[in-house]
Amino acid sequence: MTDKDLQEKLKQAKKEQDQKNHSNKKYELEIERLEKSYQEQIEISAKAQRDYINLKFDFDRYQKQILEKEKEQDTNSLISSVKKFLPFIEDLRKSLDNIPQDKKSDPLAQWVQLVYDNFLKILESMHISQIKAIWLEPDALLHEPVSLMPTENKKLKWKIIQEFERGFVYKKDDKQIVINPSKVIVWQ
Predict the structure, then answer these.
(1) Is 99 left (phi over 0), alpha (psi -120 to 50) or beta?
(2) Options 2.30.22.10, 3.40.449.10, 3.30.9.10, 1.10.10.60; which CATH number does 127-188 get?
(3) Structure confidence by residue, pLDDT tens digits, 17-31
(4) Domain spans of the chain?
(5) Distance of CA 91 to the CA centre of its chain
(6) Cα(113)–Cα(124) distance, rounded to whole angstroms?
(7) What is the largest CA-CA distance in the chain?
(8) Between the CA of residue 148 and those of 30, 62, 72, 187, what are the distances in Å?
(9) Residue 179 to residue 86: CA distance in whole angstroms
(10) Does this model's pTM top 0.70?
């Protein structure tokens, strides 16, 4: 082999090497571009997952708020309705208290007692109960003193002796709402 042949082969080898390098460089650039695109897709996917989770939490919270508002609205409607007929129940109670003992067996008195008892049962089924008062110390949330009676007995001081008007309270779960406080007379 002559020098010329060797130079020719060397030129051809360099040319092939350049073509391979150029081809490799193309592939390297393409690989780099694909890796970059892949990373962008991963970031987009991760962001979409975070956004989905946040939206899911927001939606769940919104649903809970709506349910709580519905329950609160139901409770408020119930209390509002009950407040309207509590004076009638109180009138029945006062009527029963004022019936003389010898007339308590009359059919009319028994009917009034039956109606009164049925109203109290209905209220109980709605989680509404009477506020206990007699011989207890007044509670500012449950009792409204309308009069004070003097006493010398220290054990009786600040005890409720008479209920002028019965109070009612709504109790369900941990919720307690005073519908009407008891109007009471207290020993002083």
Answers:
(1) beta
(2) 2.30.22.10
(3) 766 666 677 777 888
(4) 127-188
(5) 36
(6) 16
(7) 148
(8) 95, 50, 37, 6
(9) 9
(10) no
